Amino acid sequence: MGFFDSDIVQQEAKQLFEDYQSLIQLGGSYGKFDHEGKKIFIEQMEALMERYRIFMKRFELSEDFMAQMTVEQLKTQLGQFGITPQQMFDQMNMTLERMKSELEKQP
């Protein structure tokens, strides 16, 4: 069975995409959130990024051809912006850390 034939993989991919879309849409109102709302949003983004990191690691570790092609496509797409997948995760983590730092400064 191929990597993408797995119901678990398909469901996780679908859920990750839906959760990401919801958080991005919600993030448009981030500036209007109260302190606790901002804290919850950051925590949810951190959890989502961790789920995405684990999901991508499964692709990397899989011997399935399509999984490997997906990893290579991501590397190529990000390479067009001059970054690697690890740099993408690092950048997102730095952004979330900056958001937490700003939040701690607020009363």
From TrEMBL:
InterPro entries: DUF1825. It comes from the Bacteria. Pfam families: DUF1825 (PF08855). This is DUF1825 domain-containing protein.
